Amino acid sequence: MIEIRCRKNIKVSFEEKEKKYITKDDVILTLELETLKGADLSHIKLECANLSDMDLSNINLSSSNLTSADLSNSILRSANFHRETLMGAKLQNTCLIGADLSGALLSGAKLHGSDLSCANLENAILKYSRYNYNTIWPIGYNPVEYGAKLSE
């Protein structure tokens, strides 16, 4: 069983077959899954969710909302973040190798030490996102051209 915790007054919704989990109070979202690896959590709202230190390889979070979520130190290899909202998300030291971030909104995201090699960043919005010298970008990708700021 997996619990995802969010801040008070944040709406979280999840639908699996006929099950729905929606709350507006202190949130504990319980999923009857052994792992989120490869799970389909597309089109859900997980603002401020704590998904740090997890293996989320191949997860589908397309068209979801992870504004201000903590995904630091997580493995997101080949994850689908197509058209995902990751504004202000904590992605420090995260493995995003081969992830689909096409069309993702990463404004204000913290990318320090993340590995984005082979990630699809086509049409991703990086304005005001932060990275450091340990951040690995796809070959030939210049994050400054897309609004990312180098910071330590």
Question: Can you walk through the features of this model?
Answer:
This protein has no helices and 6 strands. The protein is globular, with a radius of gyration of 15 Å. It has 152 residues and is mostly beta strands.
Strand percentage: 15-25%
Question: Structural class of the helices, strands and pairings?
Answer: mainly beta
* Total count of strands: 6
Straight-line distance between termini: 37 Å
The Rg value, from CA coordinates, equals: 15 Å
Q: Given the structure, what is the number of helices?
A: 0
| Low-pLDDT ranges | 8-26
In N-to-C order, the SSE pattern is EEEEEE
Biggest pleated-sheet summary: 2 strands, antiparallel
Write the layout of secondary structure elements.
Elements: E1 2-6, E2 12-16, E3 19-23, E4 27-31, E5 130-131, E6 149-150
List keywords for this structure.
single chain; 152 residues; mainly beta; two-stranded antiparallel ribbon; 16% strand; globular
